[in-house]
């Protein structure tokens, strides 16, 4: 099963999850520094203060990427390294780190794919209202312009936002991610201001020229299925919240009418100003898709529902394989999602910018990390992606989440997604069996018949 010539095989990371050096070279606190240092917010009080110490191990990690044979590397820039107060002049020491990163990637023949915002909002901006106020969208555009001016000659791929749904609803309604707010109205405000920030940043970067650069945005998307026939409305509302509330503004220039009506009791959408949706729906050069699971839902009007604002809870099918996160594995959902984007929204160029699995990894006495479950997962999802391509989807690359085991947000260091095992006390990196398997996939630009099982044999 071959992939087209030039297909970008890569891996992804995020700044707060791997960098460490939380107070070095002028970096100021982000909302995740504040959140992780708040007792009870993160598993066992873990923080990203050190994380994988990528800031000090940059060359080692670049060599790891080269050894893996990566064609692309998706990373994010920490806004509080560039503008510690969220506005004002560039902190050159912070920017120098990303200059070294990009230069090191280029020297090794690896394509940089830069994400401007992966959830680490400067705390100074949160203190002024964060994503619930319009000013933050304007400040984000300013920040985007500064980073673009510095790196646009060396970086061709630019992603404005990572997963605005998670930032909005986990961070502002559920309260389980930074900044830890618990308000449906504030989640709607954050949704709009994040999308507006994307549109304003797109304008700012396009004004900067650099013909040939590709500008896009990354969404977390999931097919939604009803658990029973009578749950069809819950599934429609969940799809509206998780998918259409972002896809429709970006690709149709409107919020989905049924969802705007659904939320009228919470908000009159007065935060949407003339011209906002035109900015938000400006054409992108590609869409980044982060896929982890299908949502199977039931009606649930309680406050403990997984999606309380739309009255739905997740039900995991009894026969589903589960990851270490407890998420169901459904490779077919990726095919379904990609085909929907192509057929229903007319999305052109797409990159899978994240997809991966948490496994209960450990280093055996011989030092090996045998993660056959990850190999099975990636193999099935690569095949699902190729099936979508055979049905007309213009998929150009696949970034595995994640290059390294890392700080998994509210789960702290208890969950491992990496192709490379990290021993956190020492920082030692050990490529897992999946890393070696992935290197072979990249070398052949495709998959062999059969799948390696968890036991390490082929089937």
TrEMBL record:
<keyword id="KW-0326">Glycosidase</keyword>
<feature type="binding site">
    <location>
        <begin position="408"/>
        <end position="409"/>
    </location>
    <ligand>
        <name>substrate</name>
    </ligand>
</feature>
<dbReference type="InterPro" id="IPR033132">
    <property type="entry name" value="GH_1_N_CS"/>
</dbReference>
<dbReference type="InterPro" id="IPR017853">
    <property type="entry name" value="GH"/>
</dbReference>
<keyword id="KW-0136">Cellulose degradation</keyword>
<keyword id="KW-0624">Polysaccharide degradation</keyword>
<dbReference type="GO" id="GO:0008422">
    <property type="term" value="F:beta-glucosidase activity"/>
</dbReference>
<feature type="binding site">
    <location>
        <position position="118"/>
    </location>
    <ligand>
        <name>substrate</name>
    </ligand>
</feature>
<feature type="binding site">
    <location>
        <position position="401"/>
    </location>
    <ligand>
        <name>substrate</name>
    </ligand>
</feature>
<dbReference type="InterPro" id="IPR017736">
    <property type="entry name" value="Glyco_hydro_1_beta-glucosidase"/>
</dbReference>
<keyword id="KW-0378">Hydrolase</keyword>
<comment type="similarity">
    <text>Belongs to the glycosyl hydrolase 1 family.</text>
</comment>
<feature type="active site" description="Nucleophile">
    <location>
        <position position="354"/>
    </location>
</feature>
<dbReference type="InterPro" id="IPR001360">
    <property type="entry name" value="Glyco_hydro_1"/>
</dbReference>
<keyword id="KW-0119">Carbohydrate metabolism</keyword>
<dbReference type="GO" id="GO:0030245">
    <property type="term" value="P:cellulose catabolic process"/>
</dbReference>
<feature type="region of interest" description="Disordered">
    <location>
        <begin position="215"/>
        <end position="235"/>
    </location>
</feature>
<dbReference type="Pfam" id="PF00232">
    <property type="entry name" value="Glyco_hydro_1"/>
</dbReference>
<feature type="active site" description="Proton donor">
    <location>
        <position position="163"/>
    </location>
</feature>
<feature type="binding site">
    <location>
        <position position="162"/>
    </location>
    <ligand>
        <name>substrate</name>
    </ligand>
</feature>
<protein>
    <recommendedName>
        <fullName>Beta-glucosidase</fullName>
        <ecNumber>3.2.1.21</ecNumber>
    </recommendedName>
</protein>
<dbReference type="GO" id="GO:0005829">
    <property type="term" value="C:cytosol"/>
</dbReference>
<feature type="binding site">
    <location>
        <position position="292"/>
    </location>
    <ligand>
        <name>substrate</name>
    </ligand>
</feature>
<feature type="binding site">
    <location>
        <position position="17"/>
    </location>
    <ligand>
        <name>substrate</name>
    </ligand>
</feature>
